[in-house]
């Protein structure tokens, strides 16, 4: 959801060529599962199409070639910083980087529609703040 929200907001602001996002996971299951129906519905309620997104496993190369790596939770951030300490300076929680405070966005996977809606609302606010920060730095 974070990638779709980021791309949608970037398109709305007209900053399409300046910023790029790609969502990857730390523990992608077998068979490269598609985006969950709950996430699709939460995005559709905002007028955002998710497409046929397939889950992709994070690789060290992804971190190496990225300017910024934003995690959903403190646990994910801390894990990546420990596993790839040479890149710790570009690994943050999305709330930490965008809002200036450590806020976990819990994964709603297999949860209720309300769980997806709560995560989408948090990510919508955070991606909006993230784009503002990125545009100010440009």
Characterize the structure shown:
- This protein has 138 residues and is mainly alpha-helical.
- The protein has one domain: Response regulator (Rossmann fold).
- The chain has helices spanning 2-13, 37-44, 60-65, 74-83, 94-99, 113-137, and strands at 69-71, 91-93.
- Strands 1-2 form a two-stranded parallel ribbon.
- α2 packs across α6.
Average pLDDT, to the nearest integer? 92
Beta-sheet strand percentage?
under 5%
Query: Which residues sit in consecutive blocks of at least 5 with pLDDT less than 50?
Result: none
Structural class: mainly alpha
Strand order of the largest sheet: 1-2
What distinguishing features does this structure have?
single chain; 138 residues; mainly alpha; Rossmann fold; two-stranded parallel sheet; 2 strands; globular
Task: Please give a quick description of this structure.
With 138 residues, the chain is mainly α.
How are the SSEs ordered, and which strands pair?
Elements: H1 2-13, H2 37-44, H3 60-65, E1 69-71, H4 74-83, E2 91-93, H5 94-99, H6 113-137
Parallel strand pairs: 1-2
Helix pairs in contact: 1-6, 2-6
